[in-house]
Write a structure and sequence with these properties.
Layout (H helix, E strand, L loop, with lengths): L5 E6 L3 E5 L7 E4 L6 H14 L4 E5 L15 H9 L12 E5 L6 E2 L4 H13 L3 H16 L7 H13 L1 H8 L4 H16 L27 E5 L7 H18 L11 E6 L2 H4 L4 H13 L5 E7 L7 H4 L4 E4 L7 H12 L9 H7 L4 E5 L11 E5 L11 H9 L16 H60 L3 H32 L1
Parallel strand pairs: 3-9, 3-10, 4-7, 4-8, 5-6, 5-7, 8-9
Antiparallel strand pairs: 1-2, 1-12, 10-11, 11-12
């Protein structure tokens, strides 16, 4: 049923098509759980692929993988095709490339820390303004010193280096506190535990591999396995935003081509905008507004139109709105917003219709000539040609074995980057310090030996001098035998004479009395 330049969506009072020339004006697929959003995404992806347009989409619940294999006949599918007059309905597979951040259910998807950039990385890590400022300083240092930031160990090593140089960097760039560096390091640890470490490294994803065409002229549908990734919703949202930003930055301007170069489906879109800072919201708005000139159409898939900011919602010209419930005030507001974004149809009330739609039924409005929205129509969505539901593991392996990117991303490459450079610097510094310490110890040892030698010489000189003095004293005190006899005789005579004199004097005195 697909016509040249158009993708068949289903049947209202007429056949509903999406015009390829206006498909890069973006779109919205919305509706409550179980109303048929995934099937709408599947038939859109099939239709774009059949028209030679590559598609990227995330398989959040695991049941979109069936797009890679031929569908099987089901009564309700045949009935729907007959009801809408889809006479040439057939079952066939679409060309698919499976991707997986964890490398388990598809080819690994990687980027480098440098390509992610500080803004998205700060969002991924949940940093505050001060911590984001320190992260920006770290990226600046890496740029100025020619250090590539490829993986997580590069960033961890850089943050250690920043902490060691905090005083120097604070003088030049502003305050770099150890508390901020510590907070970043802790967030990196959390990210690693969530599996984020596998996302950073090389070989990095080449955007051109998302834009491949098969031998039959059909666009490859890149399906990202996101069932495990959804356990880390911030990683999921940041990855898709990074991918969108890469497309915006890498692709050249093409204006309004006859068909998009790529259609990008952003499932669970509310995760992109939840608690996002204003700077990030502004970046998203800018990308959505300008990326259509690169030939890329962005389609947000979400439960509630209120999940998408008004500035972004206003850019989404192609709409597929499935049923919404209106039991609470917020739900009624969501239904009202959804109804008011459509060009009114005098045949029914859009607000009431949204609450009454059945499974596989939607309000559809697409852009027509000159970009004017069509009048909203209550539409039965066409059945998919590929399988409804997930594929078997063996089927997935077969698809991957025949993949055009087989062996391109399966093995990691670890070339010299910040970690190796900083480690080399640290090793050289350590060797220099050890060498300096060795020289100082040798100098101390030589000084100690010289001092000990001087002390020993002084002691020897002292002992030698004392021996000579003692010898001299002993020589001067020695008396000969004759000298001793003369001295003894002298003392005896002196004593005798003294006593006689005393007696004479005393005697004379006694006589006088």
């Amino acid at each position: 049923m697909d016509l040249d330049g158009k993708v068949y969506l289903g049947k209202s009072v007429k056949d509903e098509f999406l015009t390829l020339k206006l498909a890069n004006r973006h779109g919205l697929v919305a509706g409550a759980t179980g109303t048929g959003k995934t099937v709408s995404l599947q038939i859109l992806a099939e239709g774009f692929s059949a028209q030679g347009v590559p598609v990227f989409c995330a398989d959040v619940k695991g049941d979109l993988s069936g797009i890679a294999v031929k569908g099987t006949s089901k009564d309700f599918l045949e009935k729907r095709a007959k009801t809408i007059g889809f006479d040439d309905y057939t079952y066939e597979a679409s060309p698919v490339i499976f991707w997986d951040l964890f490398g388990e259910q598809g080819h690994p998807v990687r980027t480098t820390v440098t390509e992610m950039g500080p803004l998205l990385l700060a969002r991924l890590l949940g940093l505050n303004d001060t911590q984001e400022g320190v992260l920006n300083i770290a990226f600046r240092i890496a740029d100025e010193e020619g250090m590539a930031l490829l993986d997580m160990k590069d960033l961890r090593a850089l943050m250690v280096n920043v902490a060691e140089r905090a005083r120097e960097l604070t003088t030049e760039y502003g305050n770099v506190s150890s508390a901020s560096v510590g907070a970043i390091q802790r967030r990196l640890l959390v990210l690693e535990e969530q599996g984020g470490e596998m996302f950073f490294g090389e070989p990095a994803l080449d955007i051109r591999d998302l834009m491949r065409i098969d031998r039959d002229g059909r666009g490859f549908i890149s399906v990202l396995a996101a069932d495990k990734l959804m356990h880390s919703p911030q990683l999921y949202a940041t990855f898709l935003l990074w991918l969108l930003s890469e497309l915006f930055e890498e692709l050249p301007e093409v204006g309004d081509p006859d068909k998009p170069r790529l259609v990008f489906f952003f499932d669970e879109a509310h995760l992109l905008f939840d608690e996002a800072p204003k700077a990030l919201i502004g970046k998203i708005e800018q990308v959505v507004k300008l990326i259509r000139s690169k030939g890329v159409g962005v389609y947000f898939v979400t439960q509630n139109p209120l999940d998408v900011p008004d500035e972004v919602l206003a850019q989404l010209g192609n709409r597929v709105q499935h049923a919404l419930r209106a039991y609470t005030p917020r739900e009624r507001k969501a239904v009202k917003v959804a109804a008011e974004t459509f060009r009114p149809n005098p045949d029914f009330d859009a607000f009431e219709a949204i609450t009454q739609l059945g499974v596989g039924e939607a309000l559809v409005s697409t852009l027509e000539k000159k970009g004017v929205p069509s009048i909203v129509q209550r539409t039965l969505i066409r059945p998919p040609s590929s399988r409804l539901g997930p594929i078997e593991k063996s089927e997935r392996r077969d698809v991957m074995a025949d993949s055009p990117v087989r062996n391109l991303y399966d093995k990691t490459v670890d070339r010299e980057s910040a970690y190796e450079i900083l480690k080399k610097r640290a090793d050289e510094k350590l060797r220099a310090e050890e060498e300096q310490q060795r020289r100082e110890e040798e100098e101390k040892q030589r000084a100690a030996e010289a001092k000990a030698k001087a002390r020993q010489q002084s002691r020897y000189d002292y002992e030698q001098g004392g021996s000579r003095r003692k010898t001299t004293r002993r020589s001067s005190n020695r008396q000969s035998l004759g000298e001793a006899m003369v001295k003894s005789l002298g003392r005896t005579v002196a004593t005798t004479v003294g006593r006689a004199l005393v007696r004479g004097l005393l005697g004379a005195i006694k006589k006088g009395f």
